[in-house]
């Protein structure tokens, strides 16, 4: 990781980054009106299935945020020569993800083909690291410090990108859902980058945030444009790159816990990766007034929307606000986790008054969010549990396992046990909520035929 000190960042650079963010936002924002018209002229439209009127909406809108992001990264490459190699790697991965997403929007690739191709998008990053063009540092974890995975970790990078792109892709479908939650996640990744002194995390994070924020304006309720797979795959790849190139892997995963939880529920309930159009049972129902209800069918997929709606019907706008509240909670946990990492790694920093104040603010914001959005409380507790269990695992490994030659095997076994416990708790909680819900709406036979 290139630090602020190594890059020689001053207040002038922070001012420049603020100007860069505004410029990318304005450029992307004003790009969308002509782009939306162009997409509609091409016939690239989707139908908003969460509204009875099913309005035709421009599809593949991720093209605009991709263009804005590419422009921002190119400016970074010009201004910051020490980050030029990382910028090239960033652009190569983003453009490859955009190409796959665009193709999928046009011809609808199977899940397996999409996964294989997304793994391939991480290969240039692996090769650039192998050739010494860029340096991918091993992850640094609480208590354990920097791991020694020089050979293994670069091989895992393509899979990290694939996992993140699929997680973002799965939490998409409602107006402003994907863009809103990832925008919030990016904000907290940038905050964590400042705490960690990660120059790539901050400098690349600014154009990522600006491009997503501009797209969100047009994607929020009522949406004027949908991201398409080109949008979700590019956003997912961008978040993964901020984690890998910024040495913020743990922060990236925790900030994206909303996406991780949803993909976990979906994959376990439908038993694998499947395209949404191939799933016959639907997790939600739309009533004649456009309120969204959780499906009461046992065989319906387990999804985060269904869990939130199990407490009662919501409008699409309020449902998305609950998703964004969860992303806000996850983001605060990510920032708190970065501080925890800074003070527990060997040779790390002391728990200063500033750190204590930030931790207190994060805790207060999580509590206030859970109070304002009561449907998020159970999921927030599960988020806290998995983060605490993760840190507990790192501590156990550091104290009891790290000196043992079989530490990797032991660590995997312990991690697997924690995941099994978490799985049992989360699934039990899901069915506890779903089975206690009142059946508010049962569609007529004519309504069933119109569902996608």
Rg, rounded, reads: 22 Å
Strand pairing plus helix content: what structural class?
Answer: mainly alpha
How far do the termini sit from each other?
45 Å
Task: Trace the largest sheet across and list its strands.
Answer: 1-2
Coarse morphology? globular
Indicate the percent of residues in helices. 55-70%
Number of structurally distinct domains: 1
How many helices in DSSP terms?
18
Global mean pLDDT: 88
Given as residue ranges, the uncertain stretches (5+ residues, pLDDT < 50) are 445-452
Number of strands: 6
Question: Could you give the order of the helices and strands?
Answer: HHEEHHHHEEHHHHHHEEHHHHHH
**Biggest beta sheet attributes:** 2 strands, antiparallel
- In terms of DSSP E residues, the strand content is under 5%
Secondary-structure topology with pairs:
Elements: H1 4-7, H2 11-41, E1 45-47, E2 56-58, H3 62-79, H4 84-107, H5 111-121, H6 123-130, E3 140-141, E4 145-146, H7 152-170, H8 177-196, H9 199-219, H10 228-245, H11 249-255, H12 257-270, E5 284-286, E6 292-294, H13 304-309, H14 316-344, H15 353-372, H16 377-401, H17 407-436, H18 445-448
Antiparallel strand pairs: 1-2, 3-4, 5-6
Helix pairs in contact: 2-3, 2-9, 3-4, 3-9, 3-10, 4-5, 4-10, 5-7, 6-7, 7-10, 7-12, 8-9, 8-10, 8-14, 9-10, 10-11, 11-14, 14-15, 14-16, 16-17
